[in-house]
Amino acid sequence: MDIKEPHGGWDKLWVEGRTLWDLGEATPIVVHLCETGSLPNGRALIPGCGTGYDVVVIASPDRYVVGLDFSKTSVERSKKMFSSLPNSKHFSFLEEDFFTWEPSEKFDLILDYNFFCAFEPKVRPLWAKRMQELMNPGGELITLMFPLDDRVGGPPYQVSVSAYEELLIPLGFEVISIVDNELAADSRKGIEKVGRWKKKKKRSE
Ligand SMILES: C[S@@+](CC[C@H](N)C(=O)[O-])C[C@H]1O[C@@H](n2cnc3c(N)ncnc32)[C@H](O)[C@@H]1O
User: Fold this and answer.
1) CATH number at residue 100
2) What is the count of structural domains for the chain?
3) Separation of 35 CA from ligand 1 center, angstroms?
4) Rounded mean pLDDT of 163-171?
5) Domain span at 169
């Protein structure tokens, strides 16, 4: 599928530092979930991780985190920024395309922030299929759903709770919870929710 990128491509935005989506710190709700022990352990993936503050903040001896981005510039920058941290053996940054990457192992946790909304709606079924393929049975997908408004065009493209439900439920995910993100950045408050989804195990698993 021909997947539309922002004019000039994502890497160009990174080269030029036009990264308005970047909070400059770990996402407060992700930090909160991590600190309250409510994130699954095991192998975690953050596709389209950008700088990857969240990759670093949730990495621990119990949770190995892969930060994936296909921008060479972004991945090189993240490696430079974070590779000397004390927990650096618990995470890695990979320059790969989410839609074609074939990892040797699946994941117990996948966190999507500002990634689903980076694609035109026609790409979303492929996004959902990849989530299903990359997730271990019983694994959890966390979607920070933004922007829940009625904008036209993108990125970020407008999202809705029903858009996620229509894609994920037929693929064997069930909703654990969908709540407003009270810790969203000021400019995103009221138009961002936290969705938690479990990939159901088949009877034999
Ligand atoms: C809007 S930014 C969000 C970055 C980060 N999640 C955040 O919230 O700060 C989207 C990111 O996805 C990356 N990206 C877009 N398409 C991708 C793909 N097919 N595979 C991997 N990364 C991709 C871009 O390079 C960019 O860094």
Assistant:
1) 3.40.50.150
2) 1
3) 25
4) 98
5) 10-199
